[in-house]
Write the structure tokens for this entry.
Amino acid sequence: MGERMGFKSILDPEFKYRNAASTDLRKTFERIRREQQRVEQERQNVADEYGSAKVVARITHRNRGTT
């Protein structure tokens, strides 16, 4: 699950330059939405597996008896 999208260097042979005029913003935003939905679905699957979407840490302070 902890997959992150890395940055590509322009020196990477897989890097493909695309100028701004050739960029379809609608397709770019659709792709981003799909990726976000996939991540949220994976997060929900993990939450369902453990029974909760949120994990809360309870921290209690103890009096040390110093006044």
